[in-house]
């Protein structure tokens, strides 16, 4: 993480990206301190830092990783392989295919009744992904379904009511 910060300060996107990607790809789960008394997943912290890179840095990240993530996403969908899809989400969340992979995985989890896990994934994309090209209604609607299925009806209604104020888009 410190080397990534150094890379960002020097605008050495390769150093920053490689350093953060090493954290993302560490086996297992690791926690890092992210505040005075707050800890979060090292992977999420690295994704968050990739998301906040300046435009040139995020563009460099995607140039390095978009082709591989798109290929893996296509293969995961064709084979209906949730393990491969989860790999795309965990390793390449902030690529051009990362938001699509996340929503696809969330929908598959919802189909299997794993609403809490799907909701967590959708929240992560909603909070971290800086420039998703998904329709604005897609993630909130799926998250609303998860909340309702988990018995959080008021939160689901509040979230879904916000959709009525969104501009209509048919893309």
How is the topology of this model organized?
Elements: H1 2-9, H2 13-24, E1 31-33, E2 39-41, H3 42-51, H4 55-79, H5 82-92, H6 98-111, H7 115-128, H8 138-149, H9 153-163
Antiparallel strand pairs: 1-2
Helix pairs in contact: 1-2, 2-3, 2-4, 4-5, 4-6, 5-6, 6-7, 6-8, 7-8, 8-9
Describe this structure in words.
The structure is a single chain. The chain has 171 residues and is mainly alpha-helical. It has nine helices and two strands. A two-stranded antiparallel ribbon has the order 1-2. A hairpin with a 5-residue loop joins strand 1 (31-33) and strand 2. Helix 6 packs antiparallel against helix 7 (115-128) and helix 7 (115-128) runs antiparallel to helix 8. It is globular.
